[in-house]
Amino acid sequence: MTQSPVSTRFPTLARAAFPQSRLLTNVLLVLGGALLVALLAQVEVPLYPVPITLQTLGVLLVGAALGARRGALSLASYLALGAVGLPVFAGSSAGLAKLAGPTGGYLLSYVLAAGLVGWLVQRYGLDRRVGGTALAMLAASVVIYSLGLPWLSVVTGLKGTSLLHAGLIPFLIGDALKLGLAALLLPGVWRLLRR
């Protein structure tokens, strides 16, 4: 059996913990990742139009732990669960209107961000060291803001500094803390697995 180009260099945490790739295991990992993001989305500081949550921490961890394909699929599943009405988004919200609202660009970017982190982990093993993990998380955060801010601008009409004050600046300190936490957590888990 040949491996895909994505997985040729470094295994993910999920692959290391569950080396046998069975369908049920993959489904449980994907749904578990979606559930983790849903739970972290409920840790919220309500701001308008974009709340502060731990949701992005979940996105980054899921992408790193599951890899590019399973991570992206996990976040796509998360969005699908919310779209059909399960209260998985921040503030226990759900529905297509949430995906079309001010936070829709951020939410949709999660699939790409998790996929990117997973690809960086599988290709370069960036989750093995603090600096590498931070770099992967920073790259994914750029993806999230690159889609979230323009969407927020279109939906709300905000531009320039008003847009940055609504959709970027209030999140920078929290994002730095989440990035630091992930950068410490992932290499620590690898050290435990090696023992």
TrEMBL record:
Cellular compartment(s): Cell membrane
Keyword Phosphoprotein appears in the UniProt entry: no
One MF term in the entry's GO annotations: biotin transmembrane transporter activity
Topological category with respect to the lipid bilayer: Multi-pass membrane protein
Chain ranges passing through the membrane: 23-41, 47-68, 75-97, 103-121, 133-152, 164-186
Keyword list, A-Z: Cell membrane, Membrane, Transmembrane, Transmembrane helix, Transport
Pfam families, A to Z: BioY
Classification via Gene3D superfamilies: 1.10.1760.20
Family: Belongs to the BioY family.
Name used for this protein in its record: Biotin transporter
